[in-house]
Structures are given as structure tokens and as C-alpha cells.
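Task: fold both queries, return C-alpha cells.
Query 1:
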Amino acid sequence: MTVNYNKNIRGVYIVATDTGPLMVRAEPNTDGTVIAEMPKNTKCICLGCYSGNWYAVTYENGGIISTGFSHKKYLRRDYKI
């Protein structure tokens, strides 16, 4: 797995799924273990790391911070950081 960096994608993102939650996965593919589920319309942070169409994101829920990969198709940037 290659992880790249692009400062232009840094930002706070909103989960923009049609209905259900967006999975945060341990690897940048649909076979990666699910480590968290981000509900629709919640926010996460991408610090500019990505692998293909997958952004490395950090998500906090109930004091637990999860970092993994989510598909960029379901993320909409709220603002740049």
C-alpha cells in the first residue's frame, strides 16, 4: 500500500453518504477491517494523506479517536485547514 500526501486535500470533511454510515477501514480498500463507522453528516479530519481514492481520516466519537481510510466519494470538504 502506498500512502501519498497532498496538502490541497487537508481539511475538515462531512460524511456525505446517501443513508447509512461511512466505514473507516484499516486499509484503503473495501476488504480492510472496519475500525469505526461515521454516521451521515458527521465530521472528520483529513490531514492530506491518501491512497488512490481513499483518504486517511481521523474521527472522534465518545472520546475514542479512530484513524484509518474512507472513500473520498462519500466525503465533502467543509473547510480547509
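Query 1 returned. Query 2:
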Amino acid sequence: MVVLPLADLIATALISGSARQLLRMDGNNHSVFHFDFAEAAVEESFQPSADVYVRDTRAFSSGEMVWNASTVWGIPEFDSLTRSSKLAIDQLDRLSSTPDRILVFNPGQGHLPIAAALRWNPGHITLVSRDLLALQASERNLRENDYSGSISTVHSADLASFDSRFDLVCGFLEEKVPQAVQEAVFDQASNALDTAGSLLVAGTSTPVTRLADRSKVGGLALIHRSRKHGHSAALFLTSPRRNDSATPQKHEVAPDG
């Protein structure tokens, strides 16, 4: 429906664009059109290159690991790792087994999945985020660092829809969301673990502390937690209640640095 003074202009423009006019009704002030575009010429949809979002390409490091990442606009860690990422990557050294199926939620620029890929070269990495650009950047950076395994990207706000189970689920807690959301993601991440799986969560210290307490009744054993300058990372293992063959390691908490 358009205002009457524009009716002829709209009709001419649409018809010249290969649309077919099926109905036109003129009133005192407006005109109503029904156009059919089914037989219009179909052009290839324009797909903008991801390169337009690239902010910089530079080297990052953690311990002896060094990798390059093409960072994108609008996502943190474009020039350096956050404290949460540093703590999370350090926790990977504490895994007692080599994971082959890894899920990373909220991967950001892709630094955590890259670190996991460089350590173990797992067969499959699944990336989950509600940020499409983060998924694209993380997948791209994994490939640019010669990861040869399979990658799945899942555009979702939660982790509840997976049929498969993972040896390691790891990722970052969103800050500006209600506590109930963080707890739901934690519970979903726990449910996505295999019987001898590990869960690694990182973020600011307060939500990580809450989730460490929550794990006591959630079938997980806290293996180690590190904290530094208001940030924290915690590593959990499926407890004997879920996996009788798994013997939790001694619970350690690293002091603030």
C-alpha cells in the first residue's frame, strides 16, 4: 500500500523490474498493489567478502605457542589476549588426557580453539556462538593456523541441541547477562560432556565462583581454578557419580596474582 501520489511511480518501477502486477486498487488517498515476483529474473545473491571486517593480522602467543590471527572489528582481543583467555589457555595443560572432540562456546577471535588445536590437533572442533562474525573469524583463524581436522559452526545462544558428546567443552561466560543465563550455559555444557569429559569455563571471577559452587551438585568435580586481577578460569571433570572409572584429581585453587 502506498500513498496515491506515488502509485504510478511505484507501479512503473516494479513492472520495469520484471514484476507482474496482479491487482491494483485505488482509494481516495492510497493505492494497494499485489505483485508477483515468482517469474522475475533471479540474480546471484551478493555475498560480501569477510575481508571487509578484518581489522588486523598479527602474532599472538601463550607460553611456547605462537599463532597468527586475522582479527575482526567489533570483537575483543584484536591486539592482545584478555586475562580470561590467558587463564583458560593455561588450564589446558592440566588435562590428563588428549581430547579428540572439542566444543568451544563464545570463541571470540578464535584464540582458545587455536590453542587447543595447536596442543592436540583434535579430530573435530565445534564452535558455538550467537555472534556469526565470531564463528566466521574463529573458523578462518583455525584454518590459517593449519588445523586440518573438521570444524562445525553452530549459530546458537545455548548448548542444548547436541546429540553427540564431547571430550572437552570450553569457553567464556558472557558478562552482561543474568546469572540464570550463565547457570543454564554451564548446565548445558556439563550435559554435552562424554563420560570422562572435561569442562573449562573462564570469565570474571564472580560468576566462575558461583559455578564452582554449583558444580558440587551438578555431577562435576572441580580440578583446578586460577584467578588473577578479577578474572578466573576453572577446570572440571565428570565426577565418579557420572563416571565410576574417573578419579578426580586433587582440588587446587591458585591464588590471585
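Both queries returned. Flag for query 2: The chain has six helices and 13 strands.
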